[in-house]
Amino acid sequence: MKTKKANKTAEAGGRGAGVRSDCWVRIALADSGGIEIDLKSKVEPMYGASIRKLTADMMATFGIEHATIKIEDAGALPFVIMARIEAAVRRLGVDVGQGYLPAFASGTQCATDRDRFRRSRLYLPGNEPKFMLNAGLHKPDGVILDLEDSVAPTVKDEARLLVRNALRSIDFYSAERMVRINQGDRGLADLDFVVEQNVHVVLIPKVESPQQVTRVDERVKTILKNAPTQARDAGFRPRGVSKADGVSSNRTAARAKARGSSDTSEHRVFLMPIIESALGAIRAYEIATASPNVVALTIGLEDYTADIHAQRTNEGRESFWARSQVVNAARATGVQPIDTVFSDVGDVEGLRASVLEAKSLGFDGKGCIHPRQIAVIHEAFAPTQGELEQARRIVAAFEQAQAKGLAAVSLGSKMIDPPVVRRAQRIVKLAEAMNE
Fold first, then answer.
1. Distance between CA 203 and CA 298 in Å, rounded?
2. Where in the chain is the domain with CATH 3.20.20.60?
């Protein structure tokens, strides 16, 4: 066992009356006695033996021969237990190599594309597994596993591992898989844990310069370039232990399957910078053009309004200029403008009015902090009957002009410019997608 510091005990995870779908782990290293596991679990009759086996397997993988391990389990899934045990082991100072990774589950290898709809993106606290498990069932356009503001500084190391494992284990269905990293060097370190896990979009917080975007972009490229030589399997083989010495054959098969179904050389991670300050708003265009991997530009109004010494209101007069800056910069660079979250979960009509205002300003989407906001956002961003009818007429005129080999498109006596055609095509596509 290799250690970097002389920690003898460490713990990780959540415990207590309000905890569910999580577990608490405490590991105390010993000089002898082997591995002793003290497990208290809500699902002991069905899964107690498998939890003990998983724990023992992880200890062997990490080279820990003697320890007392206490686990209080509140219905945690295996990927959560793995993350909590690994977090405690890392806090002991043990060299864990690439970590203990669950196999990629069904539905986690889905792809995304640059121009997909991003009407709603649901924020999920990165250290709370209970919010992640069924997030895809609510049908957001994207889920954001958050490592920044929703995670306390003392557990950010735990959140990284939980988010990493969640990306490999949870089927979010049709939702785009997003992660909001931390600021600065901590955010760059976050990328080491998530880039290889088929994350689709990385949200970069509090961006005030294009250099912040390029630093993230370059780190992502480096990770993807080196990914084929790094471990991506389900529980890497213990150092010095051969397959015949006890690494399960199903784990080896999962490793081969994961590698075969994930060609990291072709995987592309998109970026979404978040404008959250006066300086960031002024530099919105530079930020949007910092990398070809930027697909959207969004704004966070809690920090922005604090920065300009204004009180945030539902009417939004205090943020009109900044939001317009974001829309204008995004449209000028061909990326999607995405509006901020609406923080009052109980005010449905306020949310609807906020989305309609965002739509009128030119935004394509809005953040949400609760699943009940998703349907309202989608309905408000849907084209009206009048918008849809006009869009269909424009698209039909465009297709007729193309069929005739005409360079110009006209509808009645009016000429139709290419941006108008593209907007009409998007409206028709959105209406079709909502009726699927």
1. 9
2. 120-381
Which tokens sit at 263? 């060609």
Region of 36 on the Ramachandran plot (φ > 0 left; ψ -120 to 50 alpha; else beta) = beta
> What's the pLDDT tens digit per position in 111-159?
999 989 999 999 999 999 999 999 999 999 999 999 999 999 999 999 9
In contact, 137 and 107? CB cutoff 8 Å = no
> Residue 204 forms beta bridges with which residues?
273
DSSP 334: T
Determine how β-strand 176-180 pairs with β-strand 201-204.
parallel
Helices 372-381 and 348-361 pack at an angle, to 10 degrees, of 40
* Angle, alpha carbons 187-162-110 (nearest 5°): 85
Q: Are 343 and 369 in contact (CB under 8 A)?
A: yes
Please give the class, per CATH, of domain 120-381: alpha beta
Mean pLDDT of the chain: 88
Query: Which amino acid, 196?
Result: E
Q: CA-CA distance, 75 to 15, in Å (whole number)?
A: 11
Task: Provide the token pair at 331.
Answer: 């449209």
| Residues 123, 150 contacting (CB under 8 angstroms) | yes
Q: How far apart are CA 163 and CA 380, in angstroms?
A: 31
Q: Tell me which residue has tokens 């397959």.
A: 243
Query: Alpha-carbon distance 415 to 240, whole Å?
Result: 72
Does domain 9-91 fall under CATH 3.30.230? My reply is: yes
The Cα 242–Cα 227 span in angstroms is 23
CA distances in angstroms from 417 to 100, 358, 411, 421, 423, listed in the order given:
55, 24, 11, 7, 10
176: closest CA among 101, 217, 120, 94?
Answer: 120
CATH 3.30.230 domain locations along the chain? 9-91
Q: Is 312 within 8 Å of 302 (Cβ atoms)?
A: yes
Structure tokens at 126: 């990165």
- Give tens-digit pLDDT for 22-78: 999 999 999 999 999 999 998 999 999 999 999 999 999 999 999 999 999 999 999
When computed from its CA atoms, the radius of gyration of the chain, rounded to whole angstroms, is: 24
